Amino acid sequence: MEKVFLPEFKSNELARLGDSAVLDAPTGRLAFTTDSYVVRPLFFRGGDIGRLAVSGTVNDLAVAGAEPVALSLGLIVEEGFLIEDLRRVARSVASTAREAGTRIAAADTKVVERGAADGLFLNTSGVGRVREGADVRPERVEPGDAILVTGSLGDHGVAVLSEREGIAFESAVESDVSPLASLLLPLLDESPGEIHMMRDPTRGGLAAALNEIAASARACVAVREKDIPVRPAVRGACDLLGLDPLTVANEGKAVIFCAASAAGRVLEQLRAHPLGRETAVIGEAASIDEDAPLVEVVTALGTSRVLAMPYGEELPRIC
Amino acid sequence: MEKVFLPEFKSNELARLGDSAVLDAPTGRLAFTTDSYVVRPLFFRGGDIGRLAVSGTVNDLAVAGAEPVALSLGLIVEEGFLIEDLRRVARSVASTAREAGTRIAAADTKVVERGAADGLFLNTSGVGRVREGADVRPERVEPGDAILVTGSLGDHGVAVLSEREGIAFESAVESDVSPLASLLLPLLDESPGEIHMMRDPTRGGLAAALNEIAASARACVAVREKDIPVRPAVRGACDLLGLDPLTVANEGKAVIFCAASAAGRVLEQLRAHPLGRETAVIGEAASIDEDAPLVEVVTALGTSRVLAMPYGEELPRIC
After folding, report:
1. What domains lie within chain A, and their CATH numbers?
2. What is the C-alpha separation between A33 and A69, in angstroms, rounded?
3. Chain B contact set for A109 (CB, 8 A)
4. Shortest distance, CA A147 to any CA of chain B (angstroms)
5. What is the ipTM of this complex?
6. Are A90 and A75 in contact (CB under 8 A)?
7. What share of chain B is helix, strand, coil (3-state, %, to 5)?
């Protein structure tokens, strides 16, 4: 920690190497989240486990309407892991945290013997300040709400999988892994009450995110296949691998439910941001208080199919 | 998470299964800490990895003068891990959190394939509210400060090691693993300005804790061997294994530096608590602003030796 991470992190709290970081408490409401990262390989096109760990936790805060105040970093390192790779991860953690406007305030390292872990596992937890006026939760979803996604789906999962399996696609796919605080939080300044629900569709992709939201909101939602942005290279890779791009993980995208009246403004605001240029309105929340919450996809042919909750892990250790 | 942990945790935030828990922010200062747990075996005399993970993070908050507000739990589980063992850990996490007066507000589980992890690793992060008036940090150590430990040393390390190596000692040693918030925080209500520094001597034991404090405080400290509580069974085991009990991990003890004038009151207050009955004053901070911060032990024979910072990990995966 002292030799590899501190020089990168330039964190006052961390430099003190105390048992806890002490911060000024933000006023109002606090968001708190945790995630472990076991991705393999550790370095992939468009990112690495460090960028993934910081982005994932920042995004979990952002979709709760919270700006990141401080992150913690827990490392489990297998004996014999290359110090140069650890430095690379440290640099990536530090630069992604800077990009997200936050810092690593607490950290811990454990080393286990060879064979007891697969190289490197990370855990990041995060504390955030919930934006005043924000109230983002599935129970706020209303019939007629517009559903937006902030860009193309499936990029992260396909990038990691193609790296792992040594598959090269015609146009190489890069992970979308990015911290989304600067994309999402301004929506809450502009339309605080009209942003009803946000989620980053990671494990299980859009299908899992929509099914979870539908279940919590007791809602039926419908999305139009033709409006869901998927890159041709991702679609091709998914065809080849027998995957549905709607169930593949993303690490730099958000699904947003907002009041229909605000959809135009929200779309415009998202598209003006470099991380949201390809934002699309993909569907609507149809009804609430259904006995059977449901996610439907309207296909290009105009027919309808149920978008099921993906079972198990189609793509293990993708994030 | 839903089937094994939720029934034990009874946590409203967790039950919502959102991306982040949302809490009311405590006023004043916030403490934030993280730790990963890779102990082997997972179950040992006096505790298990779940009790260890909750106690460790609660104690990191408590020695910063903070009461725990919320904890997060990150699990990395090896495929094939017994669900019954996971349930046992869940029960232990839940009951230890209750004992410490806190709750699991955020959680995450990752499963890795067989051979990619050693059974189960845990990470706990914690958010706490720093007690008003508390200012606990090594820079506050002053010449003449009394040094106390809240009980016998080396119990945790010896308990885990003897379990691991299948060594039975005459009187079996139990781990001291316990959350210390209810022991330590009342000291700050009684003598807020006079508690200068606290630390839980985990990895590296008392030797590491005192050396770290001496280095940060730029202090020389001296402790008396005869006053340091070590159980005969622990001493015997350490003799047998070639270990110094002062470098062996503890998980339910604290080292406290307080103003000499407050030492009597602090001692009395600690001894009145079930977890502090064997509290002892073991030495003093001698001088500050030394070029060579130093920890000295005065032996039973009246001679002096330097208590060095333990190098490497004498006892790997003990916590």
Report:
1. 6-130 (3.30.1330.10), 138-306 (3.90.650.10)
2. 12
3. 36
4. 18
5. 0.93
6. no
7. 35, 25, 40
> B22, A212: Cβ pair inside 8 Å?
no
Residue A45 has what DSSP assignment? T
Hey, are the CB atoms on B35 and A108 less than 8 Å from each other? yes
d(CA A87, CA A83): 6
A119-132 as b/e: b if 16+ CB within 10 A: bbbbbbbbbbbbbe
Say how far residue A45 (Cα) sits from the centre of its chain.
17
Would you say B237 and B173 are in contact if contact means Cβ atoms under 8 Å apart? yes
| Closest-CA distance of chain B to residue A120, Å | 10
Q: Of how many residues is chain A composed?
A: 319
What is the DSSP-derived secondary structure letter of residue B2? T
Count of CB pairs separated by less than 8 Å, A with B:
207
Tokens of B106: 């955020």
CA geometry: angle at B203 spanning B201 and B205, to 5°? 45
Residue of B nearest to A40 (CA): B112
Per residue in A180-214, pLDDT (tens digit) is 999 999 999 988 899 999 999 999 999 999 999 99
Q: What is the pLDDT of residues A21-54, one digit of tens each?
A: 888 777 789 999 999 999 999 999 999 999 999 9
By CB atoms closer than 10 A (0-12, 13-18, 19+), residue B21 is: buried
| Contact assessment for residue B231 and residue B151, using Cβ atoms and an 8 Å cutoff | no
Residues of B in contact with A25 (CB under 8 A): 25-30, 129
Which residue does chain A place closest to B106, by CA atoms? A33
